[in-house]
Design brief:
The chain is α/β, with parallel strands linked by helices. The chain contains 7 helices and 7 strands; from the N terminus they run αβαββαβαβββααα. The chain has a single domain, classed as Rossmann fold. It is about 35% helix and about 10% strand.
């Protein structure tokens, strides 16, 4: 019961802190991706975690952050931190485009860590197969997601039965054996929580579907096969670490738009499905 209360309190505080920003999000982007520099030649565009420094689970860089902080899951085996610069780049865009007070970086957290429940938004990524978590870790992640947490699964390889995607799907089956991953419908709130998403970007273009696991009206798990982190990550000198193929910078822009939407959905749930917001959504749809 103690763990359950901790999770519920964390989620309640999480939603209370984001309530004011939900209204600001409806007003539209503060600054669009196309309004800003591509980053080339701008070496200080993003705050970054040191690329060459090993960061153990639970470590804090540059002092304790504040605001919205994702938890980046550290797993055993594979390569849990495929794109070490990705999340700080996404958080920069969240701060720039919305009214969300986001920290400069994600917090590294293990599934067995006592801090897991401090981060309602979790991110897990990679390209290679990883070691299966033990039963206690699976149970902890199940409780986290059942009581209001959110998990973004970012597959850097994108193969259905190989590498990271295979391990991640096995893990999700263990967490929710009665709830299968399914493609999200095009009218899902995640596709309109901030931008109107019409294409799924990323470093690669393996799929134009997002998959998710629904629990009631909320979707606490989202699975993307397009390597979002590979599109987000940027070097200190302003260069992107990866090319986006085959769609180039338009594909990268879509990846950032989707990332912002996913954060907004995790913060606000299905609020844009409410009838009160329908006229606003419809006007934006009509504007193309």
């Amino acid at each position: 019961m103690m763990h359950r209360n901790r999770i519920l309190i964390s989620r309640r505080n999480f939603l209370r802190a984001s309530a004011a920003t939900a209204a600001a999000a409806l007003a539209g982007p503060k600054r669009s991706f196309s309004d800003s520099s591509s980053g080339i030649g701008n070496p200080n565009l993003f705050w970054r975690e040191p690329e060459d420094k090993a960061v153990p689970p639970g470590a804090v860089i540059g002092g304790e952050p504040s605001g919205f902080i994702p938890g980046h899951i550290h797993y055993r085996g594979g390569q849990w931190r495929e794109h070490p610069l990705a999340m700080s780049a996404l958080l920069h865009e969240v701060r720039k485009r919305t009214s969300i007070k986001a920290g400069p970086y994600s917090k590294v957290v293990g599934l067995s860590s006592a801090e897991l429940f401090n981060y309602p938004f979790l991110y897990i990524s990679g390209r290679y197969e990883f070691e299966a978590p033990d039963d206690n870790e699976v149970d902890r992640l199940r409780r986290h997601l059942t009581y209001g947490g959110f998990l973004l699964v970012d597959d850097g390889l994108g193969m259905l039965n190989e590498g990271f995607g295979r391990s991640a799907r096995i893990l999700l089956q263990r967490i929710f054996p009665r709830n299968a991953l399914e493609p999200l419908p095009t009218d899902h709130a995640m596709f309109k929580s901030y931008y109107l998403i019409r294409s799924i970007g990323g470093r690669q273009a393996k799929s134009q579907e997002l998959e998710g696991i629904r629990l009631g009206r909320f979707t606490p798990v989202v699975f993307c096969r397009n390597d979002l982190g590979g599109a987000w990550a940027q070097l200190p000198d302003g260069r992107w670490t990866q090319e986006c193929t085959p769609g180039g910078e338009a594909q990268r822009k879509s990846a950032f738009n989707l990332g912002v939407n996913i954060v907004l959905y995790a913060l606000t749930g299905n609020y844009k499905q409410d009838l009160i917001h329908h006229p606003i959504i419809q006007r934006r749809l009509n504007q193309g």
